[in-house]
């Protein structure tokens, strides 16, 4: 009976289980393939254009400035193109209004330019643009008679001479930002500083001019009556006394020697090569010439050379030119050079970083082999020092330094005085005693 009831309960359950579909549980599946997404660079178009312009201008060595139109006279106009020489812009368009605070260019003793910025202090302008007075003006004398002037206090036969100053009206002179040469800018040269440098203002006597640098040679244009001039550079040969290889034999008893007090020429220097460099004909009214030191002027063993600068006016033939007269002596030098490619690699790397978005190939400069060589030597020294330290540390028990004794200093226990020539105090000096009888001779 019990078996029948159990079967009646189990059979329906089996039928229900058989009718159900058995499904498998959740199985792990391969997920979607995720790729790393890169964010594209967003470059400002104006910035990109600016960098491209900068890259193009950096490749060119000369700065190109836009020309401008100027009026020379009422019926004549001219197109003026500015030029840049040694960092100084010539023939630049002047401002429409001026207030005396415009910068101007002065020259150092060697002729290198120096920009001067005027300052306004309590309404007074300090370091303003130079004024030249009447150095470039033309003085004209006009004669008047009594009939022309009709002065009541003049005699009938008296003639009045009137001096009229006509200032220079050269439009090209106003476009020169460099200080002009006048007799006020002359310097004294020679050992006694008693010889005038006329007509030169720069460079000064015995100034050192470096190779590959540009300096300005200036002279007073009114000194010569000619329209064009030439500048000649000649090599000088120094004597052994000037080089310090022979004793000087100056005799102060000879009056002729006292008159020769120049620094180089009057010590006996002579011209070894005349006019190794000569300029073309230059308008005398300019009074300025950019003088660049050429590396070809140096020999393989020359570090510096003495050069004589002379000006030849167009009314004097080259055969009649006196090179020693109205001249100035300079020294041209190669100068110190730290490295052949100093900071070139760093500049190339910086340029590559700035222009990495322009899709242009930038040369990275010299390789790093030289830096490896420079770092190898100090690294070997450090390794050798470390090895010696470890060697001494390991073998310290076998090293006997007992024979070395520490030196002891007397210090306060000595009577030796540290200050030499120190006298005793008055209280320590022997005093006079009246009971002491003097010794008989």
Give an overview of the whole structure:
The chain has 441 residues and is of the alpha+beta class. Among the domains are: 157 residues, no CATH class; 52 residues, no CATH class. It is 18% helix and 24% strand. It has six helices and 21 strands. Strands 14, 16, 17, 18, 20 and 21 form a six-stranded mixed β-sheet that branches. Strands 13-15-19 form a three-stranded antiparallel β-sheet, with no helix packed on it. A two-stranded antiparallel sheet has the order 1-2. Strand 5 and strand 6 form a beta hairpin. The protein is extended and about 125 Å long. 10% of the residues are buried. About 5% of the residues have low confidence.
